[in-house]
């Protein structure tokens, strides 16, 4: 890690997080509701689906937030959004060639926990009527612990929720104040206790580094507290400060943000602590207990990357429901309308709310396979991927050669056709993936820090 820390400033570049390839800024209006409907109709009815449902509401703005959400003080906007969501479920189900199986259902946001308990039952009920929920379906929910009561957790359990990802960020009071997210440790501890008591055994914690006032010592203390809760998974996100895209982030005093070297030290300290507690490092920023499905998927080479991060789910199609939601199909990516009024209007007119996307070319598929292997396994055999895609092995010689400076710095090993990201290079894996991104124009789009 020493080499990497020395290189943090040199490689303090801005590159995408590669939750998709091509990335969302390259989606265009040529993929619309008509194209999506055609794609849905030709899906293999025997293949399973994953479903992502976006709930874009919160009751308070966290100043660090990089997600697409809306602050609401009344329930009425949520109620009318849910009407539209129910409409979209019916439209999508009607466009499929048959009733299809769902093995993985993820509710993200925003804060899905803004939904009233009865609306959880109504929503999972509607999904269960339109799709066949597998007996072992995983139903995962992003949970804001400040909103939760024990009755609420019981309602989630009754709706079939099996996994909860709790937004923690940091337990330190000064950091919490600087990000407008006051949430002491005992609030989180109490919610974890309720989840386990009601049978929601899989508990993930979202932690962050690079936040205002964070130091290595504070990050270590944060991880120690998190470990007391024995989470199945930990996501350790580097704070993405993009105030030109998220204007509320301007409320964060930039002079209190750690620099590139400090960020890398914080990541290194937190990862070492998690590793010494027995957690497996998964990809760029996840950690899993050895008994969690993500560890098994990593060991078996079955790990995948999607818009929620890393997953063991290998369904070829992800249906995105809700405003701004992104779907992945064998043919390409689709994204729904936002703002809310546009989303609702489409559904009220009986149309799928798809407004942009991209159809994958053969070149996109090749590069996507390479980028996903790098982001998941930290290694890729270029020759094998080219062979599998029927492309000449030397087609990517220039991209491979562009990694030589990273190899000289010990961040990757170039072993014939094989590219291996070293342990020191793990925090820089986005840079390695970027070498294969045909859309990336230096300086054209502004992304968050690579580390
Ligand atoms: C989509 S958010 C929803 C979580 C939920 N609303 C909550 O706050 O409890 C999921 C996670 O994304 C991470 N996140 C949000 N904004 C981020 C940013 N600007 N940079 C890095 N991670 C971020 C946070 O760790 C957050 O818990």
Indicate the topology.
Blueprint: H1 2-7, H2 33-41, E1 49-55, E2 57-58, E3 70-71, H3 76-95, E4 101-109, H4 117-130, E5 132-143, H5 150-158, E6 163-169, H6 173-178, H7 185-197, E7 202-209, H8 216-228, E8 233-238, H9 260-276, E9 280-282, E10 286-288, H10 293-299, E11 304-306, E12 309-311, E13 317-321, E14 326-329, E15 332-336, H11 340-348, E16 354-359, H12 362-377, E17 379-381, H13 382-388, H14 397-401, H15 404-408, E18 412-415, E19 418-421, H16 429-434
Parallel strand pairs: 1-4, 1-13, 2-3, 4-5, 5-6, 6-7, 7-8
Antiparallel strand pairs: 8-10, 9-10, 11-12, 14-15, 15-16, 17-19, 18-19
Helix pairs in contact: 3-4, 3-11, 4-5, 8-9
The structure holds S-adenosylmethionine.
* Number of beta-strand segments: 19
Mean pLDDT: 94
How far is it from the N-terminal to the C-terminal residue, by CA? 13 Å
Percent helix: 25-40%
**How many distinct helices?**
16
The total domain count is 2
Unreliable stretches (pLDDT < 50, length at least 5) are none
Name every ligand kind in the structure.
Answer: S-adenosylmethionine
| Strand order in the largest sheet | 9-10-8-7-6-5-4-1-13
Assign the CATH superfamily of the largest domain. Answer: tm_1862 like domain
Tell me which CATH architecture of the largest domain applies here.
Alpha-Beta Horseshoe
Write down the CATH topology of the largest domain: pyruvate-formate lyase- activating enzyme
Quickly name the level 1 CATH class of the largest domain: Alpha Beta
Shape: globular
Evaluate the radius of gyration: 21 Å
Query: What is the strand content?
Result: 15-25%
């Amino acid at each position: 890690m020493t080499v990497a820390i020395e290189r943090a400033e040199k490689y303090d570049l801005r590159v995408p997080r590669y939750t998709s390839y091509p990335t969302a800024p390259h989606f265009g209006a040529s993929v619309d509701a008509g194209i999506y409907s055609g794609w849905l109709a030709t899906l293999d009815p025997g293949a399973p689906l994953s479903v992502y449902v976006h709930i874009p509401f919160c009751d308070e703005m966290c100043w660090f937030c990089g997600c697409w959400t809306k602050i609401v003080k009344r329930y009425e906007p949520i109620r009318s959004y849910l009407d539209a969501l129910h409409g979209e479920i019916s439209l999508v189900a009607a466009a499929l060639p048959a009733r299809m199986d769902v093995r993985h259902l993820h509710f993200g946001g925003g804060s899905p926990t803004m939904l009233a308990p009865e609306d959880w039952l109504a929503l999972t009920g509607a999904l269960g009527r339109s799709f066949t929920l597998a007996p072992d379906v995983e139903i995962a929910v992003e949970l804001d612990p400040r909103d939760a009561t024990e009755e609420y957790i019981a309602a989630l359990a009754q709706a079939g929720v099996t996994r909860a990802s709790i937004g923690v960020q940091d337990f330190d009071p000064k950091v919490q104040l600087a990000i407008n997210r006051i949430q002491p440790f005992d609030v989180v501890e109490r919610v974890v206790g309720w989840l386990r008591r009601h049978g929601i055994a899989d508990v993930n914690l979202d932690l962050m580094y690079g936040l205002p006032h964070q130091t290595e010592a504070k990050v270590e203390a944060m991880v120690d507290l998190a470990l007391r809760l024995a989470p199945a998974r930990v996501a350790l996100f580097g704070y993405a400060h993009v105030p030109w895209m998220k204007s509320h982030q301007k409320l964060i005093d930039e002079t209190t943000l750690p620099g590139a070297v400090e960020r890398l030290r914080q990541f290194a300290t937190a990862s070492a602590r998690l590793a010494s507690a027995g957690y497996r490092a998964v990809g760029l920023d996840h950690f899993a207990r050895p008994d969690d499905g993500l560890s098994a998927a990593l060991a078996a080479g079955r790990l995948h990357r999607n818009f929620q991060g890393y997953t063991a789910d290998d369904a070829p199609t992800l249906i995105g429901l809700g405003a701004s939601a992104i779907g992945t199909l064998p043919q390409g990516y689709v994204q729904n309308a936002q703002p809310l009024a546009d989303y609702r209007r489409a559904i009220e007119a009986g149309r799928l709310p798809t407004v942009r996307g991209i159809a994958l070319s053969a070149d996109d598929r090749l590069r996507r396979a390479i980028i996903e292997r790098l982001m998941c396994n930290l290694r890729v055999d270029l020759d094998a991927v080219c062979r599998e895609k029927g492309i000449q092995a030397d087609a990517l010689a220039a991209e491979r050669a562009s990694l030589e400076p990273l190899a000289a710095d010990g961040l990757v090993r170039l072993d014939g056709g094989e590219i291996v990201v070293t342990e020191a290079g793990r925090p820089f894996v986005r840079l390695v993936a970027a070498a294969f991104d045909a859309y990336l124009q230096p300086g054209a789009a502004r992304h968050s820090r690579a580390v």
